[in-house]
Hints:
Elements: E1 7-11, E2 14-21, E3 27-31, H1 45-49, E4 54-58, H2 74-87, E5 94-99, H3 101-112, E6 117-123, H4 139-150, H5 166-175, E7 184-189, H6 198-212, E8 218-223, H7 230-233, H8 235-255
Parallel strand pairs: 3-4, 3-5, 5-6, 6-7, 7-8
Antiparallel strand pairs: 1-2, 2-4
Amino acid sequence: MKSIPKTKIDTPSGKLEYARSGKDGPAVILINGGSGPIEGWYRVFHEVAEATTVVAYNRLGVGGSDKPSTPQHGEAIVTALRQLLQKANILPPYILVGHSLGGLYANLFARQYPNEVAGVVLLDSSHPLDLSMNETQTPFIRGINRILGLFDPLSPGRKWNEVNFVEQTVEQIEKAGSFPDVPLVVVSGGKKPPMMPEHAMEIRKNNQLDLVRLNKQGKQITASRSGHFPQLTEPELVIQAVLDCVHIARKNLLRV
Length: 256
């Protein structure tokens, strides 16, 4: 596994661990899935850095970043990310690459700060309507999820965990402005997770198609050999999707 050298930077939200490589722009900002670490990008980070600046980071409560002391909903997470980028002198506009839950934050960031975004890649991203899929799970799985959630308040850091504020994040997306007219690529895993019912997979497929319709530039790529982590199972496809977005964004920026 290729290592990703990390450093830390102080922000008003707390100390954040991040990695930066490459040069030129627009900078590609890799936004992890729920509680995912920088290392989850090891199969794409260095390859993208050969073409442009790339940044990955650990949100509060992950890896070497500080533990959170306030609710980690979407607005708090977007604010902390912008603080990191400003402190590290990584200039906009950015290509936001959001995996899973990170896709909600990319969605919110793009709506709140459209002038800072040159393109978006949603990587098997969460959709605001995915919350309803929990009701399609078996009673056993729903029970396990509820039991696990009971333990969060017992830990000072875990009670502020982002997974406890997904509904609030979705509300923030609904209240934000419209999604900007920028290059948009939706990479969707084609394989059904083993524990997911067929009807839940159908809901998810429809939600992925709905993400494509966020703007008129949206297009979908299906990672047919992948489940929820195309960046690990089909990294070449993800790298190409990101670099295609970078290429289009560069052409658009030259016209401005």
